[in-house]
Amino acid sequence: MVSLVGLVVGLMGLYTSNRPSAYVQNVLALPGERQQGAAIFSMNCAVCHGLMADGRVGPSLKNVSMRKSPAALIEQVTSGKTPPMPQFQPDPQVMADLLSYLESL
Predict the structure, then answer these.
(1) Which residues are CB-neighbours of 104 under 8 A, at least 6 positions away?
(2) Which residues contact residue 85 at a Cβ distance below 8 angstroms, ignoring those fewer than 6 apart?
(3) Segment 87-91 long-range contacts (CB within 8 Å, at least 24 positions apart)
(4) Which of 59, 71, 96, 103 is most buried, judged by most C-beta within 10 A?
(5) Residue 6: is its pLDDT beyond 70?
(6) Structure pTM?
């Protein structure tokens, strides 16, 4: 019985940890404007990822949407878990615009 409870609790943790945060859900619910996203990228990301997103200090972002889901891209941008990339949590619309641009690369 104890092992069954442990299994259920473990599975519940797995389920809840895979659900996107409210912020991610908000971003994904918004239509992104690619042109705005390009401007945001130029101001905030191009120094490390290159103006053409071909990589400099940070990796190339060409075809990044083929490697990461939209939710994973948002988490990558906002988490700051991959130094030297800083934590960056813009307004949901700004993030939706940036996501739209990243998906176009």
Answers:
(1) 34, 37
(2) 48, 58
(3) 88/44, 89/23, 90/40
(4) 96
(5) no
(6) 0.80
Q: Please state, in angstroms and as integers, the Cα–Cα distance from residue 90 to each residue in 13, 25, 64, following that order.
A: 28, 14, 20
For position 20, what pLDDT does the model report? Answer: 82
CA–CA gap between residue 11 and residue 76 (Å, rounded): 25
Q: CA 12: distance to chain centroid?
A: 24
Ordered domains of the chain (ranges, CATH) = 21-104 (1.10.760.10)
Q: What radius of gyration, in Å, describes the C-alpha atoms of the chain?
A: 17
CA distance 59 to 61: 6
Tokens of 38: 């390009």
Confidence class of residue 5 from pLDDT cuts 50, 70 and 90?
A: very low
